[in-house]
């Protein structure tokens, strides 16, 4: 038996359709659209693609986009001034600062300047604290998107052994918190974890976010496990028999015959990040409107 493929593009399009309906209702009630301001500092090619995708997605669901670009040598003061301006702008319901920032700027410090009610990335200290305490709030987009995919796949989370490989603020830590809220038994594994393979092999739900192409091999996977691949690694050319040069952190061809369900790369977790951002922007607008 081989795995069911969890189609992130399809689930993301369902989320986008729900958001479009919600935005239309918001416009009807308030006579204005929710607004999302994106900030891109520098000219990192991948970040520019992601920000472009976010702006395009806003337009498609009726959210007003504000696309702010600063040069790669922008000063801390310039970025602080922009965030403060957007915090005060009533047309802006949500603000996100695309990560990573250039090395001279501190992503944690800058993100944390975003007003709590506009923190649609869910990355400020306040949002992270609310998540850790189990209080309602805006949740980081990729982990929230993964929960939606797991629910779509019918994964049983309560009581499940969940292993998250990766401990970033952007993904691993909030992912673990969301799984804990769903009563999973959660392990966060990382580069210093002893016998990572054995830890991974315990998982009913295995989530890989390590940033190393195809590191998770088929033998690491418990038969029937749900495998979520958060990695996006661009190879010089597509692997044999594939059209895309993007691969995940999981060796898909080895995992597919062992897993019960698995996300592909591309077309798995990635599309959920932007869909969830749209949902968070609508949620933020609704909360601000009272
Ligand atoms: N402030 C933030 N910065 C970053 C975040 C974030 O959530 N907030 N996440 C990532 C990048 N990211 C969004 O910003 C993102 C990554 C991947 C995708 C996506 O749709 N991937 C596609 C493949 C696209 C390609 O061809 O490269 C897929 O997996 O199918 C969307 C958004 C880091 N920074």
Describe the structure.
The chain is α/β, with parallel strands linked by helices. The chain has two domains: 31-115, Rossmann fold; 141-270, 3-Layer(aba) Sandwich (Rossmann fold). The protein is 41% helix and 15% strand. The chain has helices at residues 8-30, 45-61, 76-88, 107-111, 125-133, 141-152, 172-181, 196-200, 252-255, 270-289, and strands at 4-5, 35-41, 64-70, 94-97, 161-165, 185-189, 205-208, 226-229, 233-234, 246-247, 261-262. Helix 2 (45-61) links the parallel strand 2 (35-41) and strand 3. Helix 1 packs parallel to helix 10 (270-289), helix 2 (45-61) packs across helix 10 (270-289) and helix 6 (141-152) packs across helix 7 (172-181). It starts with a strand and ends with a helix. 45% of the residues are buried. The mean pLDDT is 97. Bound molecules: ligand LMY7XDAE. The site of ligand LMY7XDAE has 20 residues, from helix 2, strand 4, helix 6 and helix 10.
What is the annotated CATH architecture of the largest domain? 3-Layer(aba) Sandwich
Q: Estimate the global geometry from the Cα principal axes.
A: globular
Q: Structurally, how many domains make up the residues?
A: 2
Mean pLDDT: 97
The CATH homologous superfamily of the largest domain is named NAD(P)-binding Rossmann-like Domain
Strand order of the largest sheet: 1-11-8-7-5-6
Protein structure class: alpha/beta
Task: Report the major sheet.
Answer: 6 strands, parallel
Query: Count of DSSP E strands?
Result: 11
